[in-house]
Design goal:
Elements (H helix, E strand, L loop, with lengths): L1 H9 L11 E8 L8 E5 L3 E4 L4 H4 L11 E2 L2 H7 L9 H4 L14 E8 L4 E7 H6 L4 H17 L1
Antiparallel strand pairs: 1-2, 1-5, 2-3, 3-4, 5-6
């Protein structure tokens, strides 16, 4: 029985938020034919993926893989604090991953975090944001990312 319990608890490891290697973030709107970008923030640089393929690749066998180009130091300075603002609730809340749509128009905040060993991918849909009981810290985090994305544009 102990081996069985050990296997269960081994699979629920969570990334170490204090030691995050990166934060990937972006917004996707399914009813908007405009461009969208996904950003990857590390402790020393900011990159952008302009390929606009997250919405397709998330359903493939290998899922979405970030491929980006380096942005300026000035843009990095605008968002560098986000990597230390990731709330603990991101680990505890049972949020949707990259592979769900809910059969409706999508207005999603895309977030992926990794400490180099474990990664977690989530989305916070606008519908969830408006109607569900999201923790205050997750609401604040989404709003903070949205502001930063506007500053980067």
């Amino acid at each position: 029985m102990l081996k069985w319990l050990n296997r269960i608890f081994k699979n629920i490891q969570k990334p170490n938020l204090e030691g995050l290697e990166y934060l990937i973030f972006g917004r996707f709107f399914s009813d908007n034919y405009g461009a969208y970008e996904i950003y990857k923030l590390t402790r020393s640089e900011l990159l952008v993926d302009k390929r606009e393929i997250w919405h397709i690749e998330r359903y493939t066998k290998n899922g979405y893989t970030f491929v980006g180009e380096l942005l300026s130091q000035e843009k990095f300075e605008l968002v560098k604090d986000l990597i230390v603002q990731v709330p603990n609730e991101i680990l505890d809340k049972n949020l949707n991953g990259f592979y769900t749509t809910g059969n409706k128009n999508e207005d999603k905040l895309i977030v992926e975090i990794s400490d180099g060993i474990i990664k977690k991918e989530i989305t916070i849909d606008d519908y969830e944001f408006e109607t569900e009981n999201l923790p205050t810290e997750l609401r604040k985090f989404r709003l903070s990312i949205e502001r930063k994305i506007k500053e980067l544009d």
